[in-house]
Amino acid sequence: MLKSRIYLDYASLTPIDPRVTREMKKCSSSKYANPSSLYKEGVAAKKALSEGRKKVADYINSHPDEIIFTAGGTEANNLVMRGVARSAVRAGIIAPHIIISEIEHSSIIETTNELEKHGCEITRLTVDKNGVISLDELKKSIRPNTVLISIMMVNNEIGSVQPIKEIAKIVRNARKVSEAILKINAYPLFHTDAAQALYEEINMDNLGVDLLTLDGGKVYGPRGIGALYIKREVMENKWIEAVFSGGGQEKGLRPGTENLPGIMGFAKALELVSMETGKQGKKEKISEFRKVFIEGLIKICPDIIINGNLNSCPAQSPHILNISIPGIDNEFFLFQLDAKGIACSTKSSCLRDEEESYVLKSIGADSKTSLRFSFGRFTKMSDLKKTLRIISKLLGK
Question: Taking the C-alpha atoms of 65, 71, 74 and 75 in order, what is their torsion angle to the nearest 10 degrees?
Fold first, then answer.
């Protein structure tokens, strides 16, 4: 029954690749001991943990000791926001200033809202109609007490891609000014949430970030596992602190026995992504899906609105398409599609049921008529054509 359904919600969660499942089952049966144990089985588990860490590091071209495993992207983001703020206060910065965009993932938005209540100063950058920040606004927003800038690489609702390398240059220049004033060469640190950046280049040699979030559930891997890249310099100087207590695992930044089956599944998922046709080839394939789907939708309903950038380009990820169909009730329309065997969404699954999309609101789009379709590894062109036929019938075209 499920095989006859069409899944177009890859931005929410990607299906787990069967090869990942096999890797996890293998690990669960053979590497069952605690990696912190000193006996033979524990040593074998620790070796597997090191192998998994190296594979994740290889995916982003970093060092294994710069990878900290977490329970997912949300935890990694919390560790960044809270951990950097704590360290800054300890360094003598009374009211740490943090800059984010107004369309960050809810784990960033809600965490900064809480930090603001406890004395942090927060600047929320606006975005243009395509969901991209202004570099000039960013430059003007940086203050002497700015300790962290967190801008997501790819937005999970509309797919806008931020100019991370350009932002990194601005941060480096700001750091020189901050060092002259605060006598600390750490700030501001630069973090990017790259959970949705499956089709973007992530190379730590030239990206220019200090911290980066990954999530297993977005790369055909297991749920409940993620990773935070922390630049060696940041780690060694303790410019980020743990946010809860326990054992000394993950360099003391993420206490708790490591989820080895999840880690090995995550590592396998990233390895498979790397083994596929180069990122550009994958991007072109998914871009074609998006292009064909948009053209089909416009033929059905000429007044359809694309929320975000129309074309896949440097400022738009190809796997996410957010649209508004004038006159529809999006929730009712979603249920109609669901009844016909098609899975899509009206907004980010991380938002509460009663909330409208703050991402769509920020670009002036109508949350009540919007739908998000997202594509991936197992999407077929026939799936899109069938979906278009069903949408046409539902709209009475």
Answer: -60
Helix (H) / strand (E) element for 106: namely helix 106-117
The 10 Å CB-count burial string (b at 16+, else e) for 89-106 is bebebeebbbbbbbbbbb
78 within a domain of the structure (yes/no): yes
* Residue 58 lies inside a defined structural domain of this protein: no
Q: Which of 233, 259, 285 is the last residue of a domain?
A: 259
* 137 lies in the same domain as 213: yes
How far apart, in whole angstroms, are the C-alpha atoms of residue 54 and residue 62? 9
In whole angstroms, how far apart are CA 312 and each of 220, 288, 291, 318, 319? 22, 9, 8, 5, 9
The whole model's pTM is what? 0.95
In whole angstroms, give the CA distance from residue 74 to residue 242: 15
Q: What are phi and psi of 305, to 5 degrees?
A: -115, 130
Give every CB contact of residue 125 below 8 A, 6+ residues apart in sequence. 99, 100, 101, 102, 133, 134, 137, 138, 141, 151
Provide the token pair at 36.
Answer: 């912190």
Tokens, residue 233: 């310099």
Q: Point out the catalytic residue in the list 27, 301, 344, 350.
A: 350
Which residue type is seen at 336?
Q
CATH (domain of 320): 3.90.1150.10
Residue type at position 145: N
Is 350 one of the catalytic residues? yes
Q: Alpha helices, DSSP H only, in the chain?
A: 18-30, 40-60, 73-90, 106-117, 135-141, 164-182, 204-207, 232-236, 260-275, 279-300, 330-339, 358-362, 381-394
β 211-215/226-230 pair status: antiparallel
Which helix (H) or strand (E) segment holds residue 200: the answer is none
pLDDT per position as a tens digit, 368-393:
999 999 999 999 999 999 999 999 99
pLDDT in tens, 235-247: 999 999 999 988 8
